[in-house]
Amino acid sequence: MPCTFVRLAGCPLRCVYCDTPQAIPLDSGESQSFETILEGLFSSKTPLVLVTGGEPLAQKNCISLLDELVKQYQHVQLETAGAHDISKVPNKVSIILDIKTPGSGEVERNRWQNMAILPKNTEIKFVLTNRDDYDWAKGIMVQYDLADKCTVLMSCTWGSLNPKDLAAWVVQDNLPVRMQLQLHKYIWGAETTGV
Ligand code: SF4
Prior knowledge:
By secondary structure, this protein is an alpha/beta fold.
């Protein structure tokens, strides 16, 4: 679905595979009013708006921004690493919660309390670096009953895990997950940003 990204600057994590390192420093962005952000969105007119980062929930005004967006848009998504409390996210926002695997180097930052308050429309995402991450993610799915609670996505770290291998493991295990590819990299190339 055509989508406009609102990318908030700053992230306290340092995942080894981060593909938006340009958004990690807090001063990598510029301060904008909600009005300016909304004006920019109105000009693109996409049916879906995704608030991402960096880590959007690290910005203290992120929840207020989401409150404004759900007044204007039917489909608003938030992509978060889940290292922060999601309890204040407005109900109308669909959350994509990226659980950090051991291979990310940031597994200790997962805020497991979030697993107890997942809204029904949440998508849980695992970005996998290798087979160990895959097996770990399967264990987390069982531990938190994720397949029954929400949609589970699995994707490969670009250049590290071959999608053919992940596809084979998922089929072999009949795992109830959706496999995800970073489409923009296949379409525009891995190094192209801003698409
Ligand atoms: S949480 Fe996201 S933005 Fe932050 S370091 Fe990890 S991949 Fe990069």
